[in-house]
């Protein structure tokens, strides 16, 4: 099914999110419709006004339902924490928690008064970002109900040029990876929606409101758009730069930095010889990155090493165009396991996060290098596959 798009009426060099474009150029067929909005605090217009407030105030739309992903409608709930249904205090609109739903997608009850389902959530560029799975499940719900699904597109904050990592292997799909895309996919949510809808037969009546004037070379700080933390532990563009790789440390017995001042920018464990590991990693001369030994203060609310002061390693990006976070994280895990064979352990989520058992098996066998070559070939093949779905140059 062809993807319909909405573009800005006038050409401009100012980057606008799809929210601004959609509301300034509302399709005639959607005027007067009752809207179900999948969103949270990360969905704001160029002036910083929330999608909830903008749509609720629109004279030709009626906001009847709000649907919240992981972290809740305000984005403050910790990872994995279920958030109950509520009523939005400002608009009086019911808020349904998709994270509480049986399959984490909208139920018929949630959509009973909805004529069009609208999605506006900030993408972060990594496959394990659960908002993308929420989008796919919501597209399926819209298709079943026979209502349009509108994606209010936003720039990929870490750019749209770099693709890195392997696709998910058969049998390893999950809520942190529903469809076979690379660990760093280089796409916007609108492009992902178009790909999912066509390549995997969702069959939704899909409309994408394009982000105006965005180019793939642009990162978030090139766009002039306001920054909002997309989740409690992604607090900076530096964190997003490493997230597609450092998220893998969730699947080990090291911390990925949750509960510290720099989640996903640093990793650590009480037994880590940070000085030696940093020296080893810096001696590899990986492009665009260096490693600094640090002492990490972990809050008592963290899931690992609560309240402890532990040795850690900070990932310092020196050139974001040449830095490859996925490759770097796997090499770092390989080095740490080699230097701490008695202490290092895999966690139960590693295969789910990496999309197969290949990483775990390759590192255990001392065969990471061939796997990285395979992953580079898979990323190149994906670039060719996704080319027909790209909306931006």
From TrEMBL:
Pfam families: NamZ_C, NamZ_N. Coiled coil: none annotated. Residues 35-237 form the Peptidoglycan beta-N-acetylmuramidase NamZ N-terminal domain. GO terms for molecular function: peptidoglycan beta-N-acetylmuramidase activity. Residues 243-392 form the Peptidoglycan beta-N-acetylmuramidase NamZ C-terminal domain. This is DUF1343 domain-containing protein.
